[in-house]
Amino acid sequence: MAELQYKQAEKALLAAVEKARSMDIAVSIAVVDAGGHLMALARLDSVYGVVDFALKKARTAVMFGVDSEVMGSIISGADIHGYGMLNSNEGLLTIAGGVVIRNSDGKVIGAVGSSGGTPEQDKEIAQAGATSLY
Description:
Blueprint: H1 6-23, E1 28-33, E2 38-43, H2 49-64, H3 68-76, H4 81-86, E3 98-102, E4 108-115, H5 119-130
Antiparallel strand pairs: 1-2, 1-4, 3-4
C-alpha cells in the first residue's frame, strides 16, 4: 500500500506497546502517517510530558525520511541553521526514539515515536513497532 492505513498504525502501535511492556518501561508511543498526522497513540502510565516528545520524535523522522537520531547528527553540524531547523514544524526532537516506517518498496509511509525511557530504549521500542509491518 502507498499510504499507512489505520489497521497498520494499530499493528505498529501494539507491537511497540508489547516491546515496552516486555522491557517494563512506561512510555508514550505515537504513530503518524506520511504527513506527520497522528494515527494512533498509547500512554503506558507515563508522565504527561512525554506524549508530546513521542509525537515530535515520530514527526521528525517522517518529515525528513530518517530516524530522529540521524536528523540530530545532521543538525549538530548545521551551525546557525540548526536553530531554524529545530524550531520548524512546531519543533523537532532529534534524539533517538523516532523510527520511520517503510513499505515493501522502501517508501516512507509513516513513523513511530517512543518517549519515556532512555534514548536507546525508546529507539528499541519504536523499531519494534516500525518493523512489525513489513
